[in-house]
Amino acid sequence: MLRFAGLLACASAVTQTFYVCNDVGDEAFPGRYDLDDDTHANKPTWTNAQGKSIFAHGPFWYIGDLSSHPVETGYRGVTDCPRDADEPGTDCVYTASKNGREPVPVLSTAPCGAGEI
């Protein structure tokens, strides 16, 4: 993995932080996802305090665990997700993969309010 997130963020205005504030079927997925120094499949990644990451594989966006091999996907972007983009976008609708549970995460660029997550 390449370590150029800072340069990438400056050069292309990649979102620095995403939030998952809704009730999710797996308690490790809500929270703040910060831009990593690492990339996956030549795209930026964002990781929360529980080690879950937002990442791309091919043209698709996922939320899962990049630390395991093979990578464990909890949720896959299926609707209104920008394909081959540098970030997932907040309109992306996810579905639970084999390692995920309903309800699914909803991405936001706005911080969570009091009582959320």
Structural account:
With 117 residues, the protein is mostly beta strands. The protein has one domain. 7% of the residues lie in helices and 38% in strands. It has one helix at residues 5-12; strands spanning 17-20, 31-40, 43-47, 53-57, 60-65, 72-79, 93-96, 107-108. The chain has an eight-stranded antiparallel sheet with strand order 7-6-5-4-3-2-1-8. A hairpin with a 2-residue loop joins strand 4 and strand 5. The longest helix has 8 residues, at 5-12. The model is unreliable at 1-11 (pLDDT under 50).
Query: What is the beta-strand fraction?
Result: 35-45%
Instruction: Decide which structural class fits the backbone.
Output: mainly beta
Report the biggest beta sheet as strand number plus sense, adding barrel if it closes.
8 strands, antiparallel
Strand order of the largest sheet: 7-6-5-4-3-2-1-8
Task: Flag low-confidence runs.
Answer: 1-11
Number of E strands: 8
Give the domain tally.
Answer: 1
From the spread of the alpha carbons, the general shape counts as globular
Helix content: under 10%
**Overall radius of gyration:** 13 Å
Query: Average pLDDT value?
Result: 89
How many H/I helical runs?
1
Written as H for each helix and E for each strand, in order along the chain, the element string is HEEEEEEEE
Distance from first to last alpha carbon: 30 Å
